[in-house]
Amino acid sequence: MNNGSVNVVADMDKEIIVKILSGEATEKERNDFFLNCEANPSLKEEYIRLKNLWVLSIEEQAPNKQKLFEQFWATTRRSQSNRMRRIVFEAAKYAAILIISFGLALFVNSEIATNSDFVQTFSSEAGSVSSIELNDGSKIWLNSGSQLQFTEKSKKRVVASLTGEAYFEIAHDPGREFLVDVANIRIRDLGTKFNIKAYDTDDEITATLLEGKIDVQNVKGKSLFEMNPSDHFSFRRSTDKYNLTKIDPSFVAAWKDGKFVFIDKSLREICNELEKWYDVQITISNSELESGKYTSILKRTTTISQMLEMLKVTTGLEYEIKTNKNGLDMIMIK
Amino acid sequence: MDVSAKYDIVRLKTGDRSEYEKIYHEFFDVLYSLSKQYLMNTDDAEEIVQDAFLKLWEIRSGLNDQSNIKNFLYTLVKNNCLNQLRNKQNAARLIKNYHYQELQYNYEALTKTSENYIQFQELKEKIDLAISELPDDLQVVFEMNRFQDMRYKDIALKLDLSEKAVEARMSKALKILRTELKDYLPVIYLVSKLLNE
């Protein structure tokens, strides 16, 4: 056996190292070898060198990679709220805004953009509605799974990056305009109540005015048209075309009061809403059913099973709920 | 060569499932293998790799075209493995056997690895490909010499060639491989250092 003064590692020792690395060495061999190393730095060096070489030469595969990916993905669905809650704490000291919430209001991220203004991100997780009260008394409600960024400047208040649905009740301030940027449209508020829906998953973006007046502008700030109460503006991202119609706005923001209101909606449209709220996936296997129109008002506190049971009783639809391994519910409507 | 370039940063930022699936499948094995070898435990390895991907998910909004996703994942996995080895070492301190040292050596070994580790795993595939694309006469000589450890003299005898001819074919093969694999030179350098030390 070599001792510390000899730099050459004997072939016999190399063989032991290889046995250890490949898992073939006995407990005793391992024990003796590692004790030996303590007195013999060159043996230790050789072990480290061969260990790294060994690791380089091996590529092991986990037998259940796809399952692990599904777990990872399911965690990303959940982790957002935890992470946000952590940041809530850190950001609390910047909170110039009072958060009131009857679901879970999340003060996600605040970064100081300049000395005078900072960007705050608010979000609402699936299955809850959050509301935010601004310094000036304005209020914003965020529907399930929605997010927006709010920047307060001396001359203006800007909402950007809205994904999802938000309802605004804005206190008019002639000195500080309130702007909402969504897709390539800018909405300039003139003291109003309005609802904007801009889910990532939907091609269509809509804005409905309940009270007051808003000015819709393009990115360059050129006024496109003014909206009056009951005006319903829709914009398609795919075609870049917009359309202005009149609708009954009474139920547009029913979501903020904890209700689902579906008036003459197709089953697919209804299911899209339910998916966002309950964080489930709904498949409709019968394509004839997809286009059938329904009208209903439901409480959001209803569970998904109650909701489906109600659909079954009133419409005769059959359904099946499956929970996959990651806890995500898959619903099949037949 | 730039692995990040293969990914659609915009889709990663928006949390597109298929893009994460792609990255997951590309890097999982290599990171898992690394962790498992040093930690000597499959559960710990799985957890550490999973955590690294979750971290990537968390910072997705900060990704940009310059983001090196490969290095990001590698660094996280390496550091978490090092932490985990330290924790295990603390636990092993009480038990008087060789585990404490083994963990210590693995710790030291791991500190010496670099992000080239991942590139080396890519390199292995590239080498196999490059060899398989060599002209047949060069390939035969190369494989006999490098994989079957045959000397030029023996190869010459077996193939009924002169030793000079074998030598010429070898140097021609090496020249082609050098050109094919030139992007991986830093990795090759690292490995050759390990081999010749």
Short description:
Chain A has 334 residues and is α+β, with helices and mostly antiparallel strands.
Task: Explain how this protein is built.
The complex is a heterodimer of chains A (334) and B (197). Chain A is an alpha+beta fold and 334 residues long. Chain A has 3 domains: 11-57, no CATH class; 66-251, Jelly Rolls (Sandwich); 258-333, Phage tail protein beta-alpha-beta fold (3-Layer(bab) Sandwich). In chain A, 28% of the residues lie in helices and 37% in strands. Chain A has helices at 11-21, 27-38, 41-57, 65-91, 267-278, 287-290, 304-315, and strands at 98-101, 105-112, 118-124, 130-133, 139-142, 146-152, 156-169, 177-182, 185-189, 193-198, 204-211, 214-218, 223-227, 231-236, 241-246, 259-266, 281-284, 293-299, 319-323, 329-333. Chain A has a 15-stranded mixed beta sheet that branches. A 3-stranded mixed beta sheet of chain A has the order 17-20-19. In chain A, a hairpin with a 5-residue loop joins strand 2 (105-112) and strand 3. In chain A, helix 1 crosses helix 3 and helix 2 crosses helix 3. The longest helix of chain A is centred in the N-terminal third of the chain and has 27 residues, at 65-91. Chain A is elongated, with a radius of gyration of 30 Å. The relative contact order of chain A is 0.07. Mean pLDDT of chain A is 75; it is low at 1-6 and 79-117. With 197 residues, chain B is mainly α. Chain B folds into 2 domains: 3-113, RNA polymerase sigma factor, region 2, helix turn helix motif (Rna Polymerase Sigma Factor, Chain: A, Orthogonal Bundle), CATH 1.10.1740.10; 120-196, Winged helix-like DNA-binding domain superfamily/Winged helix DNA-binding domain (Arc Repressor Mutant, subunit A, Orthogonal Bundle), CATH 1.10.10.10. Chain B has 10 helices and no strands. Chain B has helices spanning 9-13, 17-39, 42-58, 69-92, 99-111, 116-132, 136-146, 152-159, 163-180, 185-196. In chain B, helix 6 packs across helix 10. Classes of the chains: A alpha+beta (334), B mainly alpha (197). At the A-B interface, helix 2, helix 3 and helix 4 of A face helix 2, helix 3, helix 5, helix 6 and helix 10 of B.
